[in-house]
Amino acid sequence: MYVSVRDNNVDQALRVLKKKMQREGMFREMKNRRAYEKPSERRAREIAESTRRVRKLMRKRLEREGY
Questions:
Q1: Which of 16, 32, 39, 40 has the most crowded Cβ, counting Cβ within 10 A?
Q2: Per-residue confidence band for 32, with pLDDT thresholds at 50, 70 and 90
Q3: Could you tell me which residues come within 8 angstroms of residue 24 by beta carbon, excluding any fewer than 6 positions away?
């Protein structure tokens, strides 16, 4: 990941870096990797995340298109 510092403005560069990391899901990944996760727990979590994602997309589609 690359962030350029312009006019010695490090605070701005840090904000941009944090935004990029948030968008990429780096913070969530670091949090998940802090402790070992059993493969069965990992599968269950991924299925739950997928279900949430699909439901959210369906809600948005319902609001936008009406079906």
A1: 16
A2: confident
A3: 1
User: Two tokens at 46?
Assistant: 């991924």
Radius of gyration of the chain (CA): 18
- C-beta of residue 1 within 8 angstroms of C-beta of residue 17: yes
Report the amino acid identity of residue 38.
Answer: K
Distances (CA, A) of 34 to 7, 8, 22, 29: 36, 34, 17, 9
Helical segments of the chain, H only? 10-24, 26-32, 39-65
pTM (two decimals): 0.57
Q: Residue 27 to residues 7, 13, 32, 53, 59: CA-CA distances in angstroms?
A: 28, 17, 9, 19, 26
